[in-house]
Design brief:
alpha/beta, two-stranded antiparallel sheet, single chain, 8-stranded parallel beta barrel, globular
Length: about 240
Amino acid sequence: MDHRPLVLGHRGAPLAALENTVEAFRIARVMGADGVELDIRRSADGALVVHHDAVATGIGVLADHPLDAIRAARPEVPTLDACLDVLEGTLVNVEVKNFPHDPDYDRAQRIVDDLLELVHARGGRDRIIVSSFNLETIDRVRAADASMPTGLLTLLGFDPVDAVSIVVDRGHHALHPDVRSLEGPIADAVVGRARGAGVEVNVWTVDAPDEITRLADAGVDAVITNVPDVALRVLGR
């Protein structure tokens, strides 16, 4: 195995601690992960909280409540700022959750403005790539700050070769395809096309050892995994 991709913990180390929590990120770092993937939502008062779903048990739609109320109801739901403190020096893939069908859909993309304001206020301490399934969201990031790396997330059914072309045309940094869309020889084709265009391929969610090995051999740049310790072991690290 000549190419050893980066290992990013999917929502931290979710088999060792509650996903998308400071503890899950701390454990992923202790395991030796190169970084993590996490999900952000916007509170009613513009705070960025780390949570996968728009609706949180015990509080409801996060966007309907200010940060103080979220903390009171769900103290384990962290702010992005707190997570970045724990992850300083590692790569953080910040996935902006902004689906049109979600109850917190942010058509005005205020979440992007708040994210960039936070990152800039931290004075360059962080290594971040901003990803989203919403192309308009990462387009907004790139328009506001062309120096911020951005990645397009795609689901099974979205042709990853076509997705590389979209990433190139829009000037984004990376493609983040669903692992199920890279079965068989398509992985080599996608990586080859992406590499020729200067685009990274960071694949989610890759847990099976044989899949980690196969994608590493294909030359992907990162695997996003629920088992960072397993991935590191498979990759000989």
